């Protein structure tokens, strides 16, 4: 069996300046914090981050933003992280806002071989600017393009040594979608178990999508 | 006068029917959950990935893996279900949510909605709002009638749209306004206000229903 378990340093070694990185999580819940901390230590810059939101100070991707490591943030919501607005005003950070459902579908399309998705969301708004509008049975849809990344940084609750992942409660969010849409998928997990210990019925991300497993992710300390 | 936000939430709650699937926005709309009759089985959706959202936990009982879309710790009810964000927005966009309740910066005569951006001032992002108003079967705007006297119910929105022709009903402290194909219709009025006062607080043209009722408080 291919050995997927690596140290934090080994896991993030291939991530470089300018990498395009999907980060799982919703306001930090479901974000692999140890990978965020490791990237802050490594200090690489000009990252393109695709994440649902800008989190809030000292949580999730907000750590990378505060450390000025992010060039572009593609997200649906940045309102709870004041640093995002400040860096935008200074021209240090580009933010591309995408409706949340559209973001999810674009990532899903990226991971599942679709050429794009048609959504009624955003029709007639500034989200539609520059996008193709396609009318089907009298109703207008926007053509939204797939999103892919060099890396997906995922947070597992329980992961077996083959990389099968189970996510607890609301930590799931974008994680299983992103795990399908990146060249290299790194899972930081709370618990690593032997193959077979996760009931196959409960596997949420099949191990074939996971390249690297890192242990040591902790429950969030309030 | 009773707390205005509580009054609005209480009135919105009357729109919910036993068995409905409902998504409440952050802030005032969240309060709607406090006014559901005990014998109603309402399923609340949290768009970050579950159905069966329950009330806030007791202090010290928070589960760090369980938040709502406003990043607050919450609980789930018996029979809840978790899913990923694509499924969550499939539920929303696929017309499986009966009612969504949201706040607004502006609403206009055609039911167009602006609630996600004030260019140059506030850019929080749309989050799930654009999907919710496009996908939910009924869209209720719960808000104060004016912004400190400044009109919010307009002939035409001046802020960037969240979506076009999506609002079904507006509930404010002054009354209830329904969006119909022929325009806005005042169907209920708070007895603390006169029709003239409602008109004055509204830039849009409002018709008064022939069956105008007193708003419950």
Could you list some keywords that capture this structure?
heterodimer, A: 222 residues, alpha/beta, Glutaconate Coenzyme A-transferase, eight-stranded mixed β-sheet, three-stranded antiparallel β-sheet, 11 strands, 20% helix, B: 217 residues, three-stranded mixed β-sheet, 15 strands, 29% strand
Describe the structure.
The complex is a heterodimer of chains A (222) and B (217). Chain A is 20% helix and 27% strand. The longest helix of chain A has 12 residues, at 100-111. Chain A has a domain at 16-97 and 148-214: Glutaconate Coenzyme A-transferase (3-Layer(aba) Sandwich). Chain A has 222 residues and is α/β, with parallel strands linked by helices. Chain A has six helices and eleven strands. Chain A has helices at 8-12, 33-42, 62-66, 82-89, 100-111, 175-178, and strands at 20-23, 47-50, 70-75, 94-97, 117-119, 133-136, 139-144, 149-160, 165-166, 182-193, 212-214. Chain A starts with 7 loop residues before the first helix and ends in an 8-residue tail after the last strand. Chain A is globular, with a radius of gyration of 17 Å. In chain A, strands 1, 2, 3, 4, 8, 9, 10 and 11 form an eight-stranded mixed sheet that branches. Helix content of chain B is 15%, strand content 29%. Chain B starts with a helix and ends with a strand. In chain B, a hairpin with a 3-residue loop joins strand 12 (169-171) and strand 13 (175-180). Chain B has one domain: Glutaconate Coenzyme A-transferase, CATH 3.40.1080. The model of chain B has no long low-confidence stretch (mean pLDDT 96). Chain B is globular. Chain B has 217 residues and is of the alpha/beta class. In chain B, strands 4-3-2-1-5-8-12-13-14-15 form a ten-stranded mixed sheet. A three-stranded mixed sheet of chain B has the order 7-6-11, with no helix packed on it. Chains A and B meet through helix 5 and helix 6 of A and helix 2 and helix 3 of B.
């Amino acid at each position: 069996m291919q050995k997927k378990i690596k140290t934090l340093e080994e896991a993030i070694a291939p991530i470089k300046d300018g990498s395009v990185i999907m980060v799982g999580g919703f306001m930090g819940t479901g974000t692999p914090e140890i990978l965020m901390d490791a990237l802050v230590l490594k200090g690489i810059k000009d990252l393109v981050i695709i994440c649902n939101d800008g989190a809030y100070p000292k949580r999730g991707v907000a750590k990378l933003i505060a450390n000025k490591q992010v060039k572009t943030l593609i997200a649906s919501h940045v309102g709870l992280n004041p640093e995002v607005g400040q860096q935008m005003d200074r021209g240090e950070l580009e933010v591309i806002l995408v409706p949340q459902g559209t973001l999810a579908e674009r990532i899903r399309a990226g991971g599942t071989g679709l050429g794009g998705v048609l959504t009624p969301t955003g029709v007639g708004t500034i989200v539609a600017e520059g996008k193709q509008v396609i009318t089907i049975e009298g109703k207008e849809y926007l053509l939204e393009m797939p999103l892919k990344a060099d890396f997906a940084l995922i947070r597992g609750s329980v992961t077996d040594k083959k990389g099968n992942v189970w996510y607890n409660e609301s930590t799931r969010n974008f994680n299983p979608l992103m795990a399908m849409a990146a060249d290299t998928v790194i899972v930081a997990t709370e618990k690593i178990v032997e193959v077979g210990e996760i009931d196959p019925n409960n596997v949420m991300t099949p191990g074939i999508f996971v390249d690297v497993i890192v242990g040591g992710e902790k429950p969030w300390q309030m | 006068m009773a707390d205005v936000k509580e009054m609005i939430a209480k009135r919105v709650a009357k729109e919910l029917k036993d068995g409905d699937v409902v998504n409440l926005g952050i802030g005032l709309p969240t309060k709607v959950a406090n006014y559901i009759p005990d014998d109603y089985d309402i399923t609340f959706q949290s768009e970050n990935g579950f159905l069966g959202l329950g009330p806030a936990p007791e202090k010290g009982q928070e589960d760090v893996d369980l938040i709502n879309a406003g990043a607050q710790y919450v609980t789930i009810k018996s029979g809840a279900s978790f899913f990923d964000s694509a499924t969550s927005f499939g539920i929303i966009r696929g017309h499986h949510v009966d009612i969504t309740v949201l706040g607004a910066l502006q609403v206009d005569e055609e039911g167009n909605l602006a609630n996600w951006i004030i260019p140059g001032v506030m850019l929080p992002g749309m989050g799930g709002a654009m999907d919710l108003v496009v996908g939910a079967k009924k869209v209720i705007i719960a808000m104060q009638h004016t912004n400190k006297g400044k009109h919010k119910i307009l002939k035409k929105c001046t802020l960037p749209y969240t979506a076009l022709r999506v609002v079904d009903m507006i509930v404010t402290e002054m009354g209830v306004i329904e969006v119909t194909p022929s325009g806005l219709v005042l169907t209920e009025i708070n007895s603390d206000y006169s029709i003239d006062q409602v008109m004055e607080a509204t830039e849009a043209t409002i018709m008064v229903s022939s069956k105008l009722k007193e708003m419950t408080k």
